[in-house]
Amino acid sequence: MALKDWLGRIRAKPSEAETPLSTPPGQLPEPEPPQGAPTLPPAASPGLSTAPVPVPPPFTAQPPLARLGAAPEPAPFEIALTPEEEAALREAGFEAEIEAEAPQPPPAPPPAPAPLPTEEPAEAAPAGWFTRLRTGLSRSTARLTESVTTLFRKRRLDEEALEELEDTLITADLGVAASRRIVEGFRRTRFGKEVTDEEVKAALAEEIATILAPVAQPLVLDPARAPHVVLVVGVNGTGKTTTIAKLGQQYREQGLSCAFVAGDTFRAAAVEQLQIWGERTGARVFTPAKEGADAAGLAFDALTAARAEGIQVLLVDTAGRLHNKSALMEELRKVVRVIKRVDPEAPHSVLLVLDATTGQNAVQQVKVFKEMVDVTGLAVTKLDGSAKGGIVVALAQEFGLPVHVVGVGEKAADLRPFTARDYARGLVGLP
Ligand SMILES: Nc1nc2c(ncn2[C@@H]2O[C@H](COP(=O)(O)OP(=O)(O)O)[C@@H](O)[C@H]2O)c(=O)[nH]1
Ligand SMILES: [Mg+2]
Fold first, then answer.
1. What per-residue confidence (pLDDT) applies to 431?
2. What's the Cα-to-Cα distance from 299 to each of 76, 83, 142, 315, 375, rounded to whole Å?
3. C-alpha to C-alpha distance for 181 and 162, rounded to whole angstroms
4. From the CA of 289, how far away is ligand 1's center (Å)?
5. Among 410, 414, 415, which residue has the most ligand 1 atoms within 8 Å of its CB, making it the best to mutate?
6. Backbone angles phi, psi at 217, to 5 degrees
7. Of 19 and 334, which is predicted with more confidence?
């Protein structure tokens, strides 16, 4: 198939499966709230209240796929979208906002808190994380290696073979620019030579690792800032709250004092989810006084309190969607503005969380969020699911933003540093 046909395909409107906000087929409905589920505690100050939580609901271990996706939420604003805005939002994975534009049925009962996985001691979990990563990448890997194997069983690396290789890489979500760059590398070093599929895979892993190496950077904290503020942003359901909890647990294991800000104030479930994680990890949680309370005010109060207490790391959760893009942009910018009033250098990190199963959509999400806030790094989650692993290569090539951590499961220990060589080899199916 000609390159332009492939390009047409990948540029086509993302399928439902690629859209993080739509409900995946076969997804289980949200569970009913457990009897006696906690309501938000009344707060002493209008802007904030803090954990401990009254009664966390019982944890239920469920198959992870049942938990993917986001709970519905009320539409807080009534602003019409222009057709251009709608197109941009659809591309960026904000389908749900667009659906919310349609006349709304009467408000649904409040969403149940997202169920949480049963936590295991951190020491017990690391075994096998790379296996999970590889399993998650297996769909991408299978397609990639199948094509490479068929293409290169033993063949001269000629123009046609290179073109087919480029097509293969593009369909594996590596993006046009990275695919071209890799093929150029092949052209320079191996053109006209006879190659085997194994040689091609090894060379591919090397080229991919070269692209990934500059972005494989840990999230460096400066606890002396007391607190180092990490603002966590991203579309709903990508894993912001879970990533905050995982980071919090890991920081505490490193002996850092840590607090969470439940800044996704429109979703009671999101607030409760963070409270439960706070209980579990022993992190203090700043929660809104009531549903829909001003997130910026909450962040301001939380940062002021965290400073007074000498807390070293403050992880700030945010809304992943509001009624439209400009409402979300306004909210995030306001949060940043008020945080700066307390500490002009904060937020010290702005972590954008992306769901690896959404494929090319992630590229659009980076563009949209970069417009809204000064994104300093990425967390890529759900690499244990049916990840479209090539997307990380596309992101590295296009934006060069550090990839700090990857999520390979729902437990605290399933958040791992991103390592270029492991990832590249995993992606092409090499041990
Ligand atoms: N399998 C898997 N699931 C994840 C991962 N990270 C988050 N999730 C799940 O994705 C769902 C949405 O996560 P959540 O943190 O609530 O997303 P948020 O809306 O961005 O805050 C939840 O069911 C999480 O347990 C991951 O790395 N792997
Ligand atoms: Mg959340």
1. 86
2. 20, 34, 45, 10, 18
3. 12
4. 25
5. 410
6. -135, 130
7. 334
pTM for the whole structure: 0.74
* DSSP sequence for 92-144: TT-HHHHHHHSPPPSPPPPPPPPP-PPP--GGGS-TTHHHHHHHHHHHHHHHH
Mean pLDDT calculated for residue range 144-171 = 86
Q: Identify the residue whose tokens are 């097509």.
A: 167
- Angstrom distance (rounded) from CA 10 to CA 18: 11
State both tokens at 11: 């540029």
Interacting residues of 286 by C-beta distance below 8 A, sequence separation 6+: 48, 49, 50, 259, 260, 261, 262, 298, 301, 302, 305, 306
Pocket of ligand 1 contains residue 347 by CB under 6 Å: no
Q: Give 168-182 as a DSSP string.
A: HHHHTT--HHHHHHH
What pLDDT digit, counting tens, does each position of 30-88 carry? 333 334 333 333 333 433 444 444 433 333 333 332 222 333 333 333 233 445 545 55
Distance 66 CA to ligand 1 centre (A): 11
* Continuous H helices in 237-324: 240-253, 268-281, 295-309
